[in-house]
Amino acid sequence: MMNDEQLNDVWNKLLADLPRYGELDSERRAAIGETLRETELGDVEAVDEFLDAIAPKADGREHVFSLFLQHSLQPWLMRDEHHVLSERAVSRLVDWYRTPGCESLVRFPILRTLAVDGHRPALAALADLIVADPPTDERQAVMSLVPLFQPRSPSLPGGEVLFPRLFDALSSAALAPVVLDLANFLVRRGVLAEHPAQSRAGELATLLGSLAARLQKIEENPAEYATNPQELSRTVNEAVTLVVSLCDALALAGNRSVVGKLRRVLDLHHRRVQTEGAAALARLGEEEGFERLKSLAKEPVVRTRALYYLDELGATDKVDESLRSPEARAEGDLAAWMAQPTRFGVAPDTLELIDRTKQYWPGYVDPVECFLFVYEYQRGPKTIGGVGLTGPTTNALQVDLQDLPPSDIYALYAGLDSEHADIYETTAEDLSPDQQDAWNGVSGVLKTQGYEELELAIWGHFFGEQFAVASAVHNGRPGVIVIADDHSEWFSLPVASRAFGPREVYAMFKGRKLLKAFNKDEGGAA
């Protein structure tokens, strides 16, 4: 480890080389990059020295500049909320941002650095750059704002300079929701005394009205707006995301002139949109909003959100007690989870509770309520079903689990949910030579015992034990075998189009061991 004098020598050499970076050989360039990864910044003077030494220029130094932001400057800012960029440093970052030829590499780390800083000069520059000259990839602009939702200083000292400037980015479909969500967040956190949308309520209400009209047309004639289900889902989800943010902003702004536009949202079929519109109306004191939330609580897919808003408004007693029970809330959690675009994409047509138990679960100190629901989707004459879990986690597999006992279904989901440094898997392609030799020996023995078509899928590591997990055929039946040092377990697979395979079998195997260990002195499901 270097002492202070050695660190100063390394730093001074780095500063001396930066102005002539384009002339350096590849070895020295690599050494500079390594220095930036290993050397911690000391103070704001060091930041200014570096930025003064490395003038904006597209000759390869933009790579070093990007490394400096990500590995030196951002960690330095995060280390202490009192670390702040000087106005000179902010100016240099802006110069780099506008340097031709460097855009693709430096724009995102610059915006993120300004957001991490969180003080007035940095955030004023951030807002101006995003509005006037955003990155070509709009996702980078969106991601650059993420640190503002997790500020290193709870008060976010420069938060008030972000608005109304950021509202000029509402014309961007990608940026509009995150800009509104940021305004809503800063109001709720008390960073902003009043919502910046108050002065633009009419403009935002008009935007909400146009989105509601667009969604209504999509509901009436979806083929006009998309050529396939994926495109339709993307179009609808983009509009819904912005509607949600707008409803929240208009409610927080507290301007009752927007009530008419919010009522239009209630006419749409999309239940999530109805819920947001109803919540906004309720926050503005409209009884119609409370009544619609009460009605929407009957719908599992939006029940959790409707109850949350009613809880927030102190009006939970408006809903029938049966819809507020643990079972009803669990049903709502599962329906909402399944409806997410990244999950099943739509809520199931039916959900039926088949088991409820309280047991210890990996990752929890105390026993937790666990619920199993059979779900079904009706698609013409075809019915697709399965079993989902809520409680300690929410999950639903697109495989047929209905013939398994509840204890095994809990075990399967517990195994999938397990996270521990001593629980991990190695794929068959990544076996070590010793593991490959062990498998070759085991598979040879299994073949003599009548197992055919053996194919190793997983090499499992479980708290010091190792297990080989393979698909096979035995006595004409397909299945999965899990082999330990001193025993093996065979799992016959049902003949079904959505039968589970080695991954699910091994998860159930792990889950059985975990739940048995956690609940050995209890009368739980294990």
Written description of the protein model:
It is a single chain. With 526 residues, this protein is of the alpha+beta class. The protein contains 19 helices and 9 strands. α6 runs antiparallel to α7 and α12 packs antiparallel against α13. The radius of gyration is 29 Å and the shape is flat.
Describe the oligomeric state of these chains in a short phrase. Answer: single chain
Residue share in helices? 40-55%
CA radius of gyration is: 29 Å
| N to C succession of SSEs | HHHHHHHHHHHHHHHHEEEEHEHEEEEH
Distance between the termini: 52 Å
Mean pLDDT: 92
Strand order of the largest sheet: 5-6-7-8-9
Total number of beta strands: 9
Outline type: flat
- Percent of residues in beta strands? 5-15%
Number of domains: 3
Task: Kindly name the structural category.
Answer: alpha+beta
User: For the report, how would you describe the main beta sheet?
Assistant: 5 strands, antiparallel
List low-pLDDT spans.
none
Number of DSSP helices? Answer: 19
